[in-house]
Amino acid sequence: MLRIHFTAEDLARTRLAGRPDPLWEIAASLHRLQSRIGRWAHAAWYRDARAAIATRQLGSAVRTLLCPLFPRATYFPDFLTPAEAVQGLRSGLDAILDTPAARVRHEIGLLAQVRKVPADMYRLADHDVRAQLVETLRKYHNAAIAPYSDHMQSRVDAECAHRGRDLLLGGAEGLHGGLGPAMRWRAPVLEVEYVGGVDRDLHLCGRGLLLIPSYFCWQKPVSFADPSLPPVLLYPLAPVAPEPQLRSAEASLPALLGRTRAAVLLAVTYGATNAEIARAVSVSPANASHHTTVLRDSGLIASHRHANTVLHTLTPLGAALLRLPDQARQVPEAAP
Q1: Fewer C-beta within 10 Å: the chain N or C terminus?
Q2: In what order do the strands lie in the sheet with 2-5?
Q3: CATH 3.30.930.10 fits 248-325, yes or no
Q4: Cα–Cα distance for residue pair 26/21, rounded to 1 Å
Q5: Per residue in 112-140, pLDDT tens?
Q6: What is the pTM of this model?
Q7: 214: which strand partners?
């Protein structure tokens, strides 16, 4: 059990990553390659990734370098998933390359305590050898992760919308309480069922926590082993539920608005930007912008600029058209 201890300052500094972390996803995807656990949920990816790895002649590097570095164990080196990766793959790989040699040797030594590692793995402390690792990680990402990037981002978009709604309606308690069955919020502590049954405490001490939803993470969340690093918690996205049956109003929307425009309106249910709508509906951003303009001019959505993006939300008329369920506004039946 991992117990994450929050102060009031930590609650104020809790953030949710808005896009997949490329290096954490590399780590979690390599775990999926090494285990049958959770493979059913990633069956299409597993098939495509193995084919791409073979086509690009990466099989040997994945087996002899990446899998030993990212084992399905209670530990793998923290320097392989640097905080800088939140800015993108290039920033993350540059951070790996710039890791001090002493830290690399120390963390490889920690890995050797939980599993047997090849003797030449300590050579990663050498900058030139680590540059070869970085290039291998880049090639693996291009082959196995990048083809699924749009799908992964759409799943993270949906997760952010749900977590944002939890925060809006329930505050910090609603946010932490809705993170999934492997996590329980007992204020001011978040109890996390951790990989390998590890039992430890993480005191945030005012640093806050970055929550990172992950496409490839399975069942149990993951964090850094070193408590001095910027606190993060990688947690699995909930499995995709079966498509629900359309309510009567939703079923008639395509006839009223057209199939694509109806899909755009549904995508705005919990708030969405043009880029998020484009991914959800599989149209170009320009096409999404055209449809949101029509819906806004019709009074069905409202648009609000935030920094460099525009967030679209339903108006009361748009919500009424969808007949969205809202338990909070239901009038209770009179007692008999």
Answers
A1: C
A2: 183-186, 189-192, 2-5, 200-203
A3: no
A4: 9
A5: 998 888 888 999 999 999 999 999 999 99
A6: 0.76
A7: 236
